[in-house]
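Worked example 3. Consider a protein that binds phosphoenolpyruvate.
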Amino acid sequence: MFGFTPVCVALSMDSCNLVHMPSSSPLTSHSGLVLHGVPVVAGVQYGPVIRPGKPPDLGGALAVPDLPEDARAPEVERFRAAAAAVAERLRERAAHATGSAAEVLSATASLAQDRGWLGAAEKQINQGAPAVRAADAAIEQFVEMFTKLGGLMAERVTDLRDIRGRVIAELQGLPEPGVPIPEEPSVLCAEDLAPADTAGLDPALVVALATTLGGPTSHTAIIARQLGIPCIVAVGGLDEVPAGTSVLVDGTTGTVTVDPDEAAAREAVADAARAAQAAAGWSGPGATADGHTVGLLANVSDGAAARAARQTPAEGVGLFRTELCFLNTDTEPSVQTQAGIYAEVLEAFAGHKVVIRTLDAGSDKPLKFAGHAEEANPALGVRGIRVATANPGLLEHQLDAIAVAGKRTGNAPWVMAPMIATAEEAAAFADQARARGLTPGVMIEIPAAALLADRVLEHVDFLSIGTNDLAQYTMAADRMAPGLATLTDPWQPAVLSLVARTAAAGAAVGKPVGVCGEAAADPMLACVLTGLGVTSLSAAAAAVRPVGAQLARVTLQQCRDAAQAVLRTAGAAEARAAALAVLG
Ligand code: PEP
Ligand code: MG
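Given these inputs, the predicted complex is written out as structure tokens:
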């Protein structure tokens, strides 16, 4: 039970980082305070804080006495109907969403209908518990179990509690908990956001996101990127800011200014909007001001996301995360089914480069049909290409399907394998891909592969650097751990040194080296990556224009100077400042 649902970890913040900023407005108790977090989506917005509604107060509902025998069967029906209504509403929202948002909403809908917890609750009702008490106890049973298991399972606890709140509110005839619909453009602040909440946001009303928890690659961040609204995670002290307080969110510097001077805040928003407008007018192709070309590509998760990305100046797909198509699939999809899914993406970008990544199953994205064993450290275990060792058929069938899709659409796909650690693994994958007429490459996500990129390149035609995992493995910091977000920051100079080394290996033999991790979505960092010698950048579709516009403002020499300055720094904050000083 409980396939992949995005990660929200319920921890409490025990320290915060409060710095004062000069303000011309009269000081209130919070006025001018600047809170710091990890910036994940650039942009500046100002508005009052809204916070998600609290789950229903169970209070007396838990003390209600047991039901008489004859009331139990109808109560089971009432409970089933409530869970089904919650699932149906989530599915309806999924049908109106696209890409990751649709994925998140349908995963949460499946959780609402999960037989494991429904069965546990029904058992309790049949023993006399009223539905509210049974729902609460059944979820709590799984929360306890998952918390004890720790790691990935513990990260599902927020999802479970989210479902409990929704089903109980339905049973009590109360409005569904979650994000209130604001009356004016507002900034949504929370400890962490339930996946279904972030997926349903209206970017016209919720203009920015800030959370106390969450990491730069959490799904809150991924959805914010898709919506194109500024987002900062791991913001120390955010919990102290009450709803209704005005805040200025700067998703470029990672700061939340509490109760700032209103005129200055509105000016900062207008400045950022002017820059965004310049970006909106940018129509590609990717190049620096002096004409050095950089391929600007989109990361997609399915055909719908690819079609949406085609509406941007993206020149192709740099990363198609195929595992995201099968998160709720119980059995291995047939070659023909897979080919149909891949063909949709190839068709959306007919005549353009499409890089299909083979299944990155395992760790935070377990697939039911991949046969994952219980592991103490799944991020260091059998994930990505390693799954093929125990289950070679999965990779063979997928490559067959990619080849079929390529032939059917007339668009020859590039394929790449995730989690490559050695040149031998790269060689074996390249042989399998070439045997099917596919252009092989591998992802560089493990420091070992970056260090020996020259040897890996003897076997493949291109490399694509996954900075999300490269940061995780270089810094020995779990990319999902909110408390470690400053370590997994892709601006860490140690991570960028490995990027530099990999890009140099590609340049030496004239083979392309791209970046497809979240680092490529940061306009300033995109310039630094270009200066380090990266030949293409692949990011969420919403990031393509801001990245392209920023690159078009600077020269290759500026990018190179920024890259050299960054490599001399000792930490991520220093690296950002060094790049900003060169790039302006
Ligand atoms: C990465 O690790 O940077 C990457 C692009 O892969 P994923 O985020 O899917 O692990
Ligand atoms: Mg990865």
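Take a moment to read the result before moving on. Confidence is low (pLDDT under 50) at residues 1-29. The chain is about 45% helix and 15% strand.
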